[in-house]
Amino acid sequence: MCLHRAWHDALDRCLYTTIPFVTLRVTLREDTPIERLLQDVVLEPQTREMSQDTSFVATFARQQRVLSMTGVNVFMFAQVMQQDVKKENPLQFKFRAKFYPEDVADELIQEITLKLFYLQVKNAILSDEIYCPPETSVLLASYAVQARHGDHNPNLHTAGFLANDRLLPQRVMDQHKMSREEWEQSITNWWCEHRGMLREDAMMEYLKIAQDLEMYGVNYFEIRNKKNTELWLGVDALGLNIYEKDDKLTPKIGFPWSEIRNISFNDRKFIIKPIDKKAPDFVFFAPRVRVNKRILALCMGNHELYMRRRKPDTIDVQQMKAQAREEKLAKQQQREKLQLEIAARERAEKKQQEYEDRLRQMQEEMERSQANLLEAQEMIRRLEEQLRQLQAAKEELEQRQNELQAMMQRLEETKNMEAVERAKLEEEIRAKQEEVSRIQAEVEAKDSETRRLQEEVEEARRKQDEAAALLAAATTPQHHHVAEAREGDAGSEGGASDEGGGDLAPQPDDIVDPVEERRTLAERNERLHNQLKLPCKFDGCTRLCDAGHCRPASLHDAPPSAAAKALKQDLAQSRDETKETAMDKIHRENVRQGRDKYKTLREIRKGNTKRRVDQFENM
């Protein structure tokens, strides 16, 4: 049994605990023939944390024939030299999940499965095996950063922190005139919005978005129809799809697994018999027999899993799900406890900061009050001086009035005085009256100034009382304030035969094509829908478009986030249209026409099987 077949069998037996990919390094001894060394292989996981890469060290055992991997025992008899591998030392193999789940949220139960499958899908997106548009790439990168580094901490995650991380497809970076710093800032803006999200949840969100990409989970094979037209056959968890040679994003014809009864091949001819007996066989030709063997293995496996998903879970799967729920609940409770402790610590630190700010504010108030007190004392001194001057002026006024009265009396007594003397006396009286009037005006002015100063003194005394109260509050013991605050807060490869095939499992009558009810995450999640909206500049369109819609902006009530707005602006300004690939143009046209993955699948599965087979023959 070959390595590939053994791994295939392991995946079949471990649907819900599939190991997506590992790297096997085999070191050969110079004095031992390779065929003898590689009779039995035992894989043991490394003890180091598998954070970014998932590597396994190969050791050799002559007696033990057990492959131990995350609790799954797989008997493996390896005839490595029969495989088409390079004769290098060490030999390196990359194992991947052969079958993709229909819905990652329902089928990836164990955390290790989620982690390894996430690594495989992320690697496929970064290497452009799965096409991902630029705006979605940045969003996925933000989830990848959250999954690896946790919550964003501005004190720890400074500029340049992501410089060595591979987060975006090279195609996306080449198509936009943005520096690494600008890409990092765009990713960080969205990373900040994921605060509080568990690493496992970030991986799951990554996969939820990734599974809506058109090329996700599709195995492509070069085929020809009877007219010798070159086409692509896509095999995935939902069925078989036919693509034109220059377009891997948009399938033209689809056959769900629920319509297929039998799959077989003879040499390079591949025959698919539909359940509808009135429909002709679906026949195509592969370039090599080995390709047909791989197609058959994928079809049989995907169909079996398709049917298994629509049956009640086995006891093992139920136990696995129950265990996963318990582990998730325990982890969630632990995280909630940690969050409560963090929140309590943050509240305590916030209150301490508030107390420190209040103390500093009171110290400033005390300094201002001290200054006001000194000013009030100076004002009181000036008032007392004014009062003394006023009293002296009043006394002088009284004296002048007495003198004037005496002169008036003399004037009355000297009626018989000569005219000259009388005129002189009258002149003295007028002068004295003017002096009295002047002094009286001065007294009134000083009296008014005194009243004003008295008002200022009263205000100064009030401020002095307030300063004294603040000083008393500042000297109150700290625990008194804490008590008050608390009261206020109470709130595969087959054999050598050139033939193969077999009947597929019988189809229950009540199976519904899952594509009929399937919607992309962006369509179901309004927030994500707004995040992925981009201005559409094609054919004069003034709408906001995303991966599945092209609607007027007024239809969207929830505004895009600040990060989404910034990203839209940056990508629109920095796009280099000369570096667009054929995939980009196809995706842009699909967006313009309002197509997404599941809308396209629903469209190409319309009509009876015969019509679709005829359509394939005429391509």
UniProtKB/TrEMBL annotation:
Domain FERM: 9-310
Keyword Membrane among UniProt keywords: yes
Mode of membrane association: Peripheral membrane protein
Cellular component GO terms held in the UniProt record: adherens junction; apical plasma membrane; cytoskeleton; microvillus; rhabdomere
Matches recorded under Gene3D superfamilies: 1.20.5.450, 1.20.80.10, 6.10.360.10, Pleckstrin-homology domain (PH domain)/Phosphotyrosine-binding domain (PTB)
Molecular function terms, GO-annotated: actin binding
SMART domains xrefs: B41, FERM_C
Name the record gives this protein: Moesin/ezrin/radixin homolog 1
